[in-house]
Amino acid sequence: MEKGNEMGIRATLKKAAIGVAATATLTVGTVVATTGPAAAAMGQGRVQLCSQGNYQSYLKFTGGGLALQTTVVPPGTCNKWDIPVGASGIEVRGVFNTSGSTFWIGSFEASASSNPGFKVYTLGTTANGGKDAWWYVTRS
Question: Which strands form 56-62's sheet, in the order they lie side by side?
Fold first, then answer.
């Protein structure tokens, strides 16, 4: 075999190996990327609360004279509910670890006709009188 041809074969084999590695990397990346959307979407008039901080949290439905609230969700867990008819908003509330007293974290507009529903996440800690607690909401 000629030296020039041998170099060409090595270069071709090296390119092929890089192509196989890149394809394997993309395949793994694709598998990882497609596992995220498997989370169930919230339907119309539904809300999910996930307590991801070091404290319990709950939701309070407001508007239309309502005085309803969800059960308390322990840290590291999620629960789902229907938004009651007549509700026009949802307050996000936390429970202090040491006293059991509650504190306001935030609020947003929502109703039984909201489509899609909402996913609410509470995070942080109850330190500084609850000022280190925070939240966010997504629609899905």
Answer: 68-69, 56-62, 89-95, 102-109
